[in-house]
């Protein structure tokens, strides 16, 4: 089952290849690629929600009736534009009560957007998406002067700027073709200091490897926790050295068991690697024994943030 706890804002999200979210003053634009619409419209198991590169209708069929979540891609257009801001995900919730004075509500949640709708409105949104029709949501209180628009549009990727490839910070390996899961608030060991480290995404690199495997989800959680806890004393140095986007790749193969980690396609400092060896090697070898005879390979992404 996918991790989904919207009350506490802890969940994993499906990401549609080519989907981008642009935010500007009083308007949010969700751009859905036309070529990701699944014409077969076949129902999939709920576990499929965790795979990236999914067709939009598969996500519609797999998600909860009153909650729909979509993970976005890095937007080259927003990154190079002073007015636009990119978001990494959007969640549509049909939990807005009929007694609310709001037509709809929109809030920023971490690096994404939460849109609260009346239940009948999210039903109309879901229908419009299945019919491949654009849909506009007006938020705020009628006549209150603070209305904002959330516009969901189907677009041709031929008319949008080419997105750059997503590459591993360890060695530049292109990861676009691998299934992945975005992780929000999944691993955050913030203390009362200037720095924090967050686990943001996991890629499944093994051939035919499924992200919905319960034991694999447990393994990635154990690895992320050990990795973050070990790096906590080193966050200041990592930040000053420019190592703020870090990858951890773990191989569990009958012929090769080990890990690689780095940032900016460089190894982390030797002193940090020594501390990681002490913590990660036992975790990895325990996992290798547990997964004996099965090949597993994952890469986890982490961000080091400086709190202002």
From TrEMBL:
Gene3D superfamilies for this protein: 3.30.500.40, Domain of unknown function (DUF3480), N-terminal subdomain
InterPro entries: SARA-like_C
UniProt xrefs under Pfam families: SARA_C (PF11979)
Residue ranges constituting the Smad anchor for receptor activation-like C-terminal domain according to the UniProt record: 1-284
Gene Ontology biological process terms in this record: endosomal transport
One CC-aspect GO term: early endosome membrane
Identification of the protein by name: Zinc finger FYVE domain-containing protein 9
Species annotation: Desmophyllum pertusum
Lineage: Eukaryota, Metazoa, Cnidaria, Anthozoa, Hexacorallia
């Amino acid at each position: 089952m996918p991790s989904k706890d919207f009350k506490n804002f802890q969940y994993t999200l499906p990401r549609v290849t080519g989907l981008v979210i642009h935010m500007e003053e009083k308007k949010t634009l969700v751009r859905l690629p036309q070529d990701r619409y699944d014409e077969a419209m076949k129902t999939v198991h709920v576990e499929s929600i965790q795979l990236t590169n999914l067709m939009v209708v598969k996500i519609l069929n797999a998600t909860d009736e009153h909650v729909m979540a979509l993970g976005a891609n890095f937007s080259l257009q927003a990154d190079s534009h002073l007015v636009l801001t990119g978001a990494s995900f959007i969640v549509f919730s049909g939990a807005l009560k009929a007694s609310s004075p709001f037509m709809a509500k929109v809030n920023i949640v971490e690096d994404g957007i939460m849109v609260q709708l009346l239940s009948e409105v999210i039903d109309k949104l879901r229908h419009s998406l299945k019919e491949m029709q654009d849909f506009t949501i007006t938020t705020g209180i009628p006549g209150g002067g603070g209305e904002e628009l959330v516009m969901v549009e189907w677009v041709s990727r031929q008319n949008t700027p080419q997105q750059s490839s997503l590459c591993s910070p360890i060695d530049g390996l292109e990861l676009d073709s691998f299934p992945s899961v975005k992780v929000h608030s999944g691993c955050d060991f913030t203390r009362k200091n200037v720095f924090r480290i967050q686990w943001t995404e996991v890629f499944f690199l093994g051939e035919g490897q499924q992200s919905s495997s319960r034991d694999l989800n447990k393994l990635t959680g154990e690895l992320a926790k050990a990795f973050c806890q070990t790096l906590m004393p080193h966050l200041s140095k990592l930040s000053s050295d420019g190592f703020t986007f870090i990858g951890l790749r773990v191989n569990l193969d009958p012929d090769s068991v080990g890990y690689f980690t780095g940032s900016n396609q460089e190894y982390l400092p030797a002193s940090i690697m020594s501390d990681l060896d002490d913590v990660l090697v036992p975790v990895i070898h325990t996992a290798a024994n547990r997964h004996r005879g099965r090949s597993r390979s994952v890469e986890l992404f982490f961000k080091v943030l400086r709190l202002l």
